[in-house]
Structures are given as structure tokens and as C-alpha cells.
């Protein structure tokens, strides 16, 4: 295993789905059920059984819109406000209308959701305004349940192949070039439609621990979706709206407000005082978190030590079993106990992830990107705050629409020269006798991201970042060296991470205002609704560098009243507020 | 430009006595999202799984899915 073989095979399918985490499997199931004749291929660089952000499971649905608790209009309004108004509401509204059906479908797969004594869904309030959080008592079974459905539906699964570039021709998508992560053999997949569900760019910033893989996101989510969309010519929206999260320091897992909050836990400063009104993750909340860390009242803590024993035990049962089960090991190793002391928190490294923020490959309410036949869903697509249920639901939209698209077209022709050029690019690090290993290229890129891109954003620092990224790119293209196929996968990831870092810097330079709290806090600029109440769309320019344009926010479907617009702007607990307990 | 051989402790530990790689089992290698585990032949000729690449997200499918409870996921030293 891992020996470099360098062969080339070509296969054809109707719909290629890249990424077998959350959105991908649902897209595959929906497409296959709508057209059982369709040849649907689900491809992953890991193994679909345990790939993606929900590898081990998920502790709850953070954004369920359940009749009786919330309405689609309410939810659309809340997400629009939480996202500082920059939101095409149609995609959020469609999600909100149809996610309940997806919950029922997941239920039928054997994934249970918490119900009260009357058999009603036991939905909790975490957001600033509405009630949307639904716990999943057996959330550790999600991937297994999905996998069973994939087998039952006879989806063709290809594991351990990493897509590196999309193929286009005739003005639409034509397929993808993939490479085996254990043999470096190439696979060209021709497809009438391609659905991308490749997750977040989670290996963009460097965690403060210095461990490259100690990221908040699953470290296999290294941003290939963003890079492939960029090189294929698709538009990416609002990449300056970074993802930054409040996490358990060093462990770098969620604290987790959505589990502990409804049971009485909260984020506190060193004096044990609550300082933010609402623990729901937003840029404004993260700005307050940052201010507290920088001010004299830090560090910031997760406070549970005021809760009753049975409450703490229940929180432990969820947090230490489902989403990140090594968390129990971590606290044991540190000798920390929720009952006895507050747990130190910190601010995460930056990333791209619409699951919690709003940036990503631009899509509409059908999950269509700006390239015909190419779809994106989940953390890499720009539907704001869509979490796991958003990945499932938007993945479903992509699968359903792709079936209609493929019915009317044949495979698009493409230039074999593109395949040859990509093979040359990919294999270059295997052709040298020595050089710089990918982990050093990656470490340097990510350290520069922390030094120069982590907000608050300063223009001169971002310009330095751009210069340094150019130098690293030169080193990477001329001198990166790998010894086996596994290292080649890391080399391709290093290249993707550098692409994402360049896009992050360039997008942040373009929007000359501050917005989304800490996510795009440009210290030299105030918020500017007159000039910047718009999306920014990044594409690959003719010079091979990012190009930018403004794009209007589509007229709202749900109006936001003047006095509601700032609901997320005032997160700090006021002098008159009483610490909630 | 020669490469250094810098040592590093790894978080995933496999108990050789319990590991059934010799019987053809590759479950932990198959499920790892970061593909960091491999099978190696020991001095006594028997096979065992081990962590070859120090690139771990301490996510635990290897430990959870191992049929003989041979795998333990510790926290990487840098962050534990």
C-alpha cells in the first residue's frame, strides 16, 4: 500500500457526488429514488462509512423548523438577522419549509430525536429569538443508518479517491479528475451532473496547540470543494465571512452551548459572570468573546459547576459519547470535572464553513452553482447557518434537481489536454529526488494565516500575507517532494489550503467595511450599508488570481422590521441584566 | 536536501495481543477518515495494525469499530 503506481482509468456515470459525509449520501439517496435507472456514484477520499463532519455522530439538530415550535418565516427572519442581512432568503426559506420532512425521513432510517412525555419533539431554545434545537439521543448511529440506506439503494460507492479538479466543456460540468490516495492511480469520471459535498475548509488556520490536525472541523475537510469550484470558474460568495468558534481550549471541540445551554450551562468570564446574552454562534457573539479574552476579565470559561449532579451527568453523557467522544478522555487527562471547576475556552482558528457562518460556493434554492450541472451542498455551499440538517436538506435538493438536469443532456465533451495537465500538476512532487515535504508547506501556510488573516483584519497585514503566500506557492510548485501516495494526498491538500488562504485574504481585502462581528472586523472600516449591503462574488480571474464583484441581495421574501434588524448586534449583557440561571 | 527523522509520539495505540490483523481484519485501517493506520508484520511474523502517520483528529472510529477492542485513541501530546 502507498506505492506510487500512476495509472489512468475512465468511467462514466449519470450523477457524480463528491463527498460522502452528510449532504452527499442524502443527495445520492434522493437522486436514486427519483430515478432508479440513474447511475449514481458517490466518491470520497476517506471511507463513506465514517467520513465527514459527522464521522462519529451528532448530538442534535441545531436548526430544526418544527410545526408548533417555529415557522419557516420566523426562521428565515432569524437567520437573515443573524447574518447581518446579507442573505438570499429563498434558499433559507425552502430549507425551513422542507427540513421537517427530512427529519421524518431520518427518523424512518432509525435515527431518533428527543420527544417529551406526550410524544412531541422536545425542541430547545438556543438562538436569540426562536426555538430550533432538537437533541438526538442516539446521534452516534447517524453514519451507520445512512450507510445502510446507501447499500439498500445500491448506490455505487468509491472510497479513497480524492477529486482534484472538475472537468468542464460545452459551458457546463463534464466530470472530475480523481486520484487514489493509496496508489496515486488516476480515475477520470465523466458525469452529466456533479454534486459537491466536500465540507468545510477546516485546515485553514493553525490551532493554538500547533498540532496540524487538532482542528475544530474534521481535519480531512481541507477545502477541496472551494478550490475545485474556483478552478472550474464557479462563483464563491462572501468568503470574507470566516468561521471562528468558541471552543474548549486545546481540545478544540465545541463547548457545547447547544447541549449545555438549554440545561443551564453558559459561557462565563474569569469571574464566573455571564457576559453574552445568547450563546448561539454568530459573528457578533464571537466579537464579544474576543473582547472578553482581550480585556481584563478573561479567560473565558464554560460554566456548569452550578448545576445539579444529574444535570451534569446528562450533559456528560451526550458530550462524551456522541459528536467528539474523546472529550471525556481529554478532561480525565487534565483532571478537570464540570462539577468542580469551570472549563477554559478559547477562540478557534479561522476556516470557511457555511454550517456556522455564511461563506461558500454560491448556490440558489436548488443547490445550483453558477456552472450548469454543478451543484454544492452542506458546509461548502453558501446557505447560511445550515448545520447538519441543512446539509441533509440542501443535499436532497441537489439530488432531486440533478436528476432533472441529467435527463436532458448527454455527457459534455471536454479537452483531454486538461486531464494531461492535471496529471502533470498532481504528480510533480513524485518526480523530484528531494525537496520540501507537504507538512512543512501546509504548516507555513497555516501559520501565515494565523499571523496575518485572523481578525481583527488589518490591510497592511493582509498585503503581507498575500506576498508570503506567493512565496510559499513558488516553493510548493517548484520544490514540494513526496515519497508515497499518502504523502501525495497531503501535498494535494496543502495546495488546496493555499488556494483557500489566498481566497480568504483577497475576499477580505475587497470588502472595505466591517460586517458579521468578528468574522469580518476590518479595523480601518466601519459598517457601510450604503456601499456594501451586497454579496461579494469571487471567481478565478483571467490572470489566474481571484477576481471580485458585488452582487445584489435578492429582495426579501420575509420583511425585517427596522427595530428587528439589530437583534444580534447587542450581545453583551447590559449593566441592568441579571445573570441568567 | 536530506529529510530529517524527527521522532513523534502517536495518539492511536494498538494492543498487539488483541489485534486480529493476522486473520485479515483491516477495520481500523478502513474507517480512519485521515487514513493514518496501516498493517505491519511483526518480528514474530504475525501482523498488527499500527499508526503510521501522525495526522490524527482523535475522532475514534478506529476504537469504536474495532471488533476486539484492541485500539485506544489517546489525545495527541501537543494538545492533551
CATH architecture title of chain B = 2-Layer Sandwich
Number of helices of chain B: 2
Output mean pLDDT of chain B. Answer: 95
* H-E string of chain B: EHEEHE
Largest sheet of chain B: 2 strands, antiparallel
* N→C terminal distance of chain A: 56 Å
Low-confidence stretches of chain A: 575-581
Helix content of chain A: 25-40%
In a few lines, what is going on in this structure?
Chain A is α+β, with helices and mostly antiparallel strands and 581 residues long.
Description of the molecule:
The complex is a heterodimer of chains A (581) and B (80). Chain A is of the alpha+beta class and 581 residues long. Chain A contains 15 helices and 17 strands. In chain A, strands 1, 2, 5, 6, 7, 8 and 15 form a 7-stranded mixed beta sheet that branches. Chain A has a 4-stranded antiparallel beta sheet with strand order 14-9-16-17, with helices on one face. Chain A has a 4-stranded antiparallel beta sheet with strand order 10-13-12-11. In chain A, a hairpin with a 5-residue loop joins strand 7 and strand 8. In chain A, helix 1 runs parallel beside helix 10, helix 5 crosses helix 14 and helix 12 (438-452) runs antiparallel to helix 13. The model of chain A is unreliable at 575-581 (pLDDT under 50). Chain B is α+β, with helices and mostly antiparallel strands and 80 residues long. Chain B has one domain (12-68): Alpha-Beta Plaits (2-Layer Sandwich). Helix content of chain B is 12%, strand content 20%. Chain B has 2 helices and 4 strands, in the order βαββαβ. In chain B, the strands form 2 sheets. A two-stranded antiparallel ribbon of chain B has the order 1-4. In chain B, strand 2 (37-41) and strand 3 form a beta hairpin. Chain B is globular and about 40 Å long. Chain B starts with 11 loop residues before the first strand and ends in a 7-residue tail after the last strand.
